[in-house]
Amino acid sequence: MTGAQVVVGRVDAPATREFRPGGKEHPIDRLVDDGDTASLGGTTLTAHVMPGHTKGCLAWTTDLKEDGKTYHVFVECSLNGNFLQYVNNKDYPNIVEDMRSTYKKARTFPVDVFLSSHASFYGMQAKYEKLQKRGPGDPNPFIDPQGYLAHVDEYEKGFEAALAKQLAQAEAKK
């Protein structure tokens, strides 16, 4: 409808094609792999495959400037996996290994600002309210590297707890 190009990760393209928005074929204009870039206006984003939430979940990085300083921005693919099936997942047998590798990879990025498809994951509302009240010299609340690492830790712990629960339930059924 907008004329925007639809960029999809190659690994997730088959699942994306299964979506039928409004009963119509899901448009895909371009496939990307880990390390490929896409540009929006004057901003170039780099794709990073971070499997787990889906087999080809994509995170994106870019650098942005504010007041002459460059900040590393990370737009995550959801690290939230508390609701996924880990034990005996016939459709995704490597999901546990992929989730663990993604949490490890998530910690390798230099992140000043992190965003996500779910505003609650990074506290968008509270940060935006602080931004609106910010005075001269006050820090930008979206610059939150420690919040990013805490976010990764929180969701990794949630994943491990969900996995432990599923393993216990599977063991109890034996």
How does this structure look, described?
The protein is an alpha/beta fold. The protein has a single domain (33-173), classed as 4-Layer Sandwich (Metallo-beta-lactamase, Chain A). The protein has helices spanning 13-18, 95-106, 124-133, 145-173, and strands at 7-9, 30-32, 37-40, 43-49, 58-66, 69-75, 113-115. The strands form two sheets. A five-stranded mixed β-sheet has the order 3-4-5-6-7. A two-stranded parallel sheet has the order 1-2. Helix 2 (95-106) packs antiparallel against helix 4. The mean pLDDT is 93.
Give a quick summary of the entry:
The chain has 174 residues and is α/β, with parallel strands linked by helices. It has 4 helices and 7 strands, in the order E-H-E-E-E-E-E-H-E-H-H.
Detail the topology: elements first, then pairings.
Layout: E1 7-9, H1 13-18, E2 30-32, E3 37-40, E4 43-49, E5 58-66, E6 69-75, H2 95-106, E7 113-115, H3 124-133, H4 145-173
Parallel strand pairs: 1-2, 6-7
Antiparallel strand pairs: 3-4, 4-5, 5-6
Helix pairs in contact: 2-4
